[in-house]
Amino acid sequence: MSGPQLQQHDAHVHENCEHGHANDHDGHDGHGHAHRHAADAGPRLLWALLLTLGFAGVEAAAGFWSGSLALLGDAGHMVTDSASLALAAFAAWLAQRPPTQQHTYGYGRVETLAALLNVLFMVVVVVGISVAAVERILTPVAVQGETVALVAALGLLLNIAVAWLLMHGEQTMNTRGALLHVLGDLLGSVAALVSGAVVMWTGWTTADPLLSLLICALMLASSLRLLREVLQALMEGVPASLSTEEVAHVLAAIAGVASVHDLHIWTLSSSRVALSAHLVVESLEQWPTVLAASREALAASGITHVTLQPEPLSAPVRWLPRAAGWQPGAARPS
């Protein structure tokens, strides 16, 4: 590389550093936005945890008093759900911590990890309930229908309240993973209420395990959908709501942009999407205007952490392959 070429290269790097600083500021604004979402999710998850764990104690006491294995089993299920809510609440709290030199993106990804653990935990619970349901079909168990129906009705009201609490907060992967468990409890309460009524009126105890299998199938389908989204985020894939091709067209359509290359889009957390790209511009003098327009267009798509590098349309050659008889600083061989 010749002296003039080296100076041009240094100037180009300095230009990128200045714009990189501006983009970092934009990214921190997005991170503060994510902090507000995590702060909103934490208290909701904590209240959901306290309500669920409290009713699990009530259900366990009613199960011992009535001799109902169905209620005892559902109480155990709610205890496991309380553990998942505790994990989600801890992840929401940890996600509020600011970035460090070792974790420059912050701890938002921990919510994705918590969602993964909750989904896997839910799959284990579904398998366990399915096995128990099959056993009860083969070996029916006596159930006090009146007690089951009464406690199930109370549990249904509680689960509706907890689900409403979580659904009206920020919908991160973490809260959706916790909500998955709560909806499992809600559907379980519906199944227990229906089975209790059936047992009261007909004495057919097989209704309970059959309804449990139906609920398990529905919950497994929801779990697998969330698992696919979580794995996509952990693999740094493009979020399902975005298209790389469409984003590239949006950037290329901005006045002053000649072309786009090295475009990367990935998920930082449930509420933060990152993008980096090289924009070939007609003139570096247009870059401030192009940068502002690019940020505005990307923000409209929900992309808040943006790193863009400008390249002039007629960029000077900064490196040439060594050819026979050619030396650094010499004219380019014909």
Automatic annotation (TrEMBL):
Return the annotated region ranges for Disordered: 17-36
Q: Where does this protein have compositionally biased stretches of type Basic and acidic residues?
A: 17-32
Q: Extract one GO molecular function annotation from the record.
A: zinc ion transmembrane transporter activity
Q: How does it sit in the membrane?
A: Multi-pass membrane protein
Cellular component aspect of the GO annotation: plasma membrane
- The record places domain Cation efflux protein cytoplasmic at 243-312
Is Ion transport one of the keywords? Answer: yes
- Which Gene3D superfamilies does the UniProt record give? Cation efflux protein transmembrane domain
Q: Which residues cross the membrane?
A: 45-65, 77-95, 115-135, 147-166, 178-204, 210-227
Question: Keyword annotations for this protein?
Answer: Ion transport, Membrane, Transmembrane, Transmembrane helix, Transport, Zinc, Zinc transport
Signal peptide bounds: none
Q: Where is the Cation efflux protein transmembrane domain?
A: 46-235
Please state where this protein is localized.
Answer: Membrane
Q: Which family does the record claim for this protein?
A: Belongs to the cation diffusion facilitator (CDF) transporter (TC 2.A.4) family. SLC30A subfamily.
Q: Under what name is this protein listed? A: Cadmium, cobalt and zinc/H(+)-K(+) antiporter
| Gene giving rise to this polypeptide | czcD_1
